[in-house]
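Input.
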Amino acid sequence: MSKQVVRLCRLQLANLFGKNEFRYTKDKAKKKRMMGLGIIWIMLILMVIGYVGALSAGLGMLGMAEIVPMYLYAIASLLMLVLTFFKAGSILFSMKGYEVLVALPVSKTAIVLSRFLSMYVTNLLGGLLIMLPGIVVYGYFERPGIGCYLLALTGTLFLPLFPLTIASVIGAGITAVSARVKHKSLVETMLMLVFIVVATGGSVLFGKSAEQMNISEWKNMAEIVSAQIGTMYPPAQWFGNALLGNLGDFVLLLAVPTVIFAVFIGILQKYFQSICTALNAVNAKNNYKMQKLYSSTKVVALWKKELKRYFASGVYVTNTIVGYVLALLASASIFFLGMETIVAAADIPNLDVMIKHGLPFVIVILMSIATLTSCSISMEGNTFWQIQTLPVRSKDVYDSKILLNLTVAAPFYVLSVMFLALAIKPDFLELMWLIVIPGCYLVFMSVMGITVNLAFPVMKWESEVRVVKQSASTLIMMLLSMVCCIIPMAGVIIAGEKPADFIRLLTVAVIVGFTAFLYRKNNKKELMDIIS
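Output.
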């Protein structure tokens, strides 16, 4: 069975990373795009290594190097929990791949283990990316023996088990709750949004408790933070204690996640087929009645189709709406907490001025975490031929997808601007920038998302997660949006009052001009020319 698990896992990973496609494709343009994506991934990896190394070095300089391992362990676990939470249900319990594999001479246990193993490998790569730079910095400050590094590596290998299991249970629970509901995608979305709000609120409360420490407590900072991390996530404290030579905690670190994982796997493989069937069942009624029919313009009809497709997919909604939710939460927090409270808690000179200048860009950064249009074309998948055969222009299709993005973003944009306006009480010019800058960026990102997705379409996929979270267009769009927001925001914050207004005006002019350029460029791309 072990050979079956390894082969199935290799197949899934090869599909995920596009190994065979890159190796055997004869399309030189596609190879160039994939090589460009590889370069972007390398740059992203280097950025993460640099950030983790700088964070660890900063803690070391503050005399808190001993908490670096457990701190990074907790961060890596939280990231794995959140990322796996969004994709566990659609990967583990997908019937598409199962229907193909069940006809082959492979056991159900091998199928279950291979799916877990593929997620374990991807999570482990992310965990190593976070843990290894931190352990190197920890070793520089603490000078431990070689045994410490062996314990750290072994503990990191077991790191993904607990978050993976918990996220799978939560994801399966949410899918099970929503499976028997009429509007199950809406229920699934609401449950996931509740999880996001609770997780965000918990992190804010944790940060607030840390801010209450005064200067006299800096000497005991390591013990305080260590106790807080241990209370919130005991495996992180076990990991930190294991590196200090506590073998009992090291045994707990390996044994507890392994036992929980084994129990979950045992239950899952026993009832896997019935669970998949139940979770993917669709209820249909035969009570359709002909009612009054309405006609619409081509763009409006396509837009309605996009709306139905969007809200029919829990994965699509939750992964693209999270940025808008965070923007609204941030704006509401500023309104309810008050600008004075935030400035006083941070104790940074001129922070109120910097916040007022940078707020429009901060909201845009949050909203640009995931843009709908960056994957809306790829979401058509193997049904794209239907649109290609309709008597519509490519411009109509692109306009409907842009309109979908603006429709979803509009309520969050309006509420965020209202909360911020009431919180900071801006003058007329500041209010204008607060309204105009995020609005221009939303249109710009909607259009640029189409451009990026046209350059990196993925029309052949089995799971929506592959398109929404793991596609090249989603990653590239996220990086481009961040760069386009951070550069002008930094200029506005550094500049004085009048130069800041000039930078804002120049930014808006550039964004509007570039949006018009990309819009015309997109419309020249014919639907029949789009291939995976």
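The chain has 24 helices and no strands.
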